[in-house]
Amino acid sequence: MSTFVAILLAVLAGICAGIQPGINAGVGKIIGSLEGALVSFGVGFFILLGIVTFFGSGDFSKITVVPKPYFLAGVLGAIVVTSLIFTVSAIGSAASLTILVAVQLIVAMVVDHFGWFGAVRIPIDFYRIGGLVLMLLGIKMIMK
How far apart are CA 84 and CA 63, in angstroms? Predict the structure, then answer.
């Protein structure tokens, strides 16, 4: 995949991630927060099932060799969506997502630093810490 296409997909993901919590919170207000999270994952499941059915080129028979801890990704996704349904209603989408992204960045920097889960090892350095400090200042500003 080219860098340009990767950037476009990241922008698309960012647009979706910026809109999704507000929609999920709206659904949660109507049917309940946990029920709203279930609806979100249910719809996503069926969309991905269709995409995989028509465009998938992987091999589900290899699922038995996937390391068991990797299945936690689904649990983590459920925690993210459910947590945002609650927090967006309390502090708004911008504050919720800014905190999420800052903490996500901290964790991702640690993952990169140690090369966990097969990640490329990228040491934490002055520039990365500087970027993190700027993000933390941004959270303070957005929450004012």
Answer: 30
